Amino acid sequence: MAKTLLNTLGTCQIDSQYLFGQGYDGASNMSGRFLGVQTQIREVHKHKYAIYVHCAAHALNLVVTKATEVASIRNALGILEKMYTFFNTPKRKTVLVDLIEASDLEVRVKSWKRVSTTRWSSKFDATADFLNIAFFVNQAFGSISTWKNDAATDAILLQRAMDFEFLVSVVVANDVFTYLAPLSRELQKKEIDLGNAVDLAKDVLSELRKNRGNSSYFKTLYDTVLEYAALLNIEERKKRTVKVQTARANPDTESIEDYFRITIFNSFVDHVIQHLESRFEAHEALFKGFSILFRDGTPEDEELLKKTAEFYEPQVDSPAVIGELRLWKAYLKRKKIKPENALVALDHCDPEIYKNIYMLLKILATLPVSTSTAERSFSTLGRVKTSQRNTTGQVT
Hints:
By secondary structure, this protein is mainly alpha-helical. The chain is built from 19 helices and two strands. The protein has three domains: 1-54, no CATH class; 61-282, no CATH class; 290-384, no CATH class. The radius of gyration is 26 Å and the shape is elongated.
């Protein structure tokens, strides 16, 4: 695969000596540090500058996947998936749509998206859409439960699954997803660079930590849960607390609100923070050597930039880079310029005056942040190369 990639570059008359970055998802055959494609290209084929960057959009998807392994959140998303499947028939969906259309309430959606494992935003949309039509879903279950077929049994079981813990889980998940969804959309943009990706991830982490340490924040979420519970006629209750329990969370608290704050909210937010830090740690470490190009730094940051320049020799003259850096910072301060990313900085950087700074900015702008845009083009081929067309001959 590594040979094929390099041969294809040569066929397209692209000089691989200027290969400064590789972007793939986390599949071991691509990202493996011993036999993966990225290692083969750097070590076997001697393209040492081609640093591997794990696609940030894929990394965020893994954060959501791992964090939703919290039992209550996982169960709630599983129930939402079963509800989607249940209403994914014309007759049952008609019941739900008729109830929505007969209501005077303003409803944004008439169904909700599937909790897909491959569609990154599906979990974000599924929780928000369900909360928007939860009242009508409950009514639809009640109506279908009077039917004389198997659908009635399924409706009764799904309606019973909508207990108080389910409501807490959906509201908490939807709240956390409101912070992750903008980050997911931003990471899939064409113009985003490594600095923007790291800064956005830090912003999300900062807000989640702030919410985690603010007891009144969960109080607001809990009040929302109580409103839904009153609307759906669901009793406020928690699981029974016992002295010895190993199968689930069992905090020693009499308050129902504190029970769900500890078992669901704190647990889920902690998982998201933990996995977000670990998944974006490599991105932050990679960007750290370039960060002083955009913001004020310390002598240690200057030394880190020098080490980064040494890595890219002879493309960059490391002995001259510190002097150029100080002139570059003075220029930005004099012109009152605060570049947001490498592309903006390149527009203001004169390659004749700041030759090495200009080269470092070009390298930073080249490093791939996300491969999701390229993947979309592959998935779009399904509209053209359908199963019927794929089985026909290639000779015209």
